[in-house]
Specification:
With 59 residues, the chain is of the alpha+beta class. 25% of the residues lie in helices and 10% in strands.
Length: 59
């Protein structure tokens, strides 16, 4: 799964680590992140940081 564009080069999210009810939980999300740790915990379990690389802009 791709992360949002601005994170795509920094994180890899493994689809196979996402639970089956992932989309159902997101659909019912009230966006009160301070009261809920679901996304934070899921990120810790399923995301892997990618090595930092500078883009070659010399073209």
């Amino acid at each position: 799964m791709d992360t949002m564009e601005w994170l795509a080069k920094r994180l890899h999210v493994a689809n196979e680590k996402l639970p089956a009810e992932f989309l159902t939980i997101l659909a019912g999300c009230d966006r009160n992140c301070r009261a809920c740790s679901y996304c934070r915990e899921l990120l810790d379990k399923s995301a892997t940081p990618l090595a930092f690389q500078l883009e070659d802009l010399r073209q």
